[in-house]
Amino acid sequence: MKTITRILLGATLASASLLAAAADNPLSVHILDLQSGQPTAGVGVTLEQRDGQAWRALGNAVTDEQGRVRALYPAGKPISKGVYRIVFNTGEHYARLRQPTFFEQIPVEFKVDDTAQHYHIPLLLSPYGYSTYRGN
Prior knowledge:
The chain is α+β, with helices and mostly antiparallel strands. It contains 2 helices and 8 strands. A 4-stranded mixed beta sheet has the order 4-1-7-8, with no helix packed on it. It has a 4-stranded antiparallel beta sheet with strand order 3-2-5-6. Strand 7 (119-126) and strand 8 (129-132) form a beta hairpin. It is globular, with a radius of gyration of 17 Å.
């Protein structure tokens, strides 16, 4: 019984730690499948920052079972003003589903002006179209 209690306590503390880290992170994403109305899990997401005329990779993640990446910006670093790009690797997702798609990748560029704000980028996805907006 003590072992089970310790495991549960450890899992609870780990979950609380992850949620706290995500709450401090300035950038999150969410993907929702428009056909099914369900979250889109397992999609690779890349974050880049414009550096002159080039893009510099800052990090990668994969959407969780709720279709979210709660902390996409590198942990422990404050976000800086500038232009960023999130690339959603949707072609890989549809290939796993054995479903055709028109968009192999969906790049979403956005500008950070206020470093004190949280930036949330939702993606509404279907095989032949998408929409995005600034969420909260």
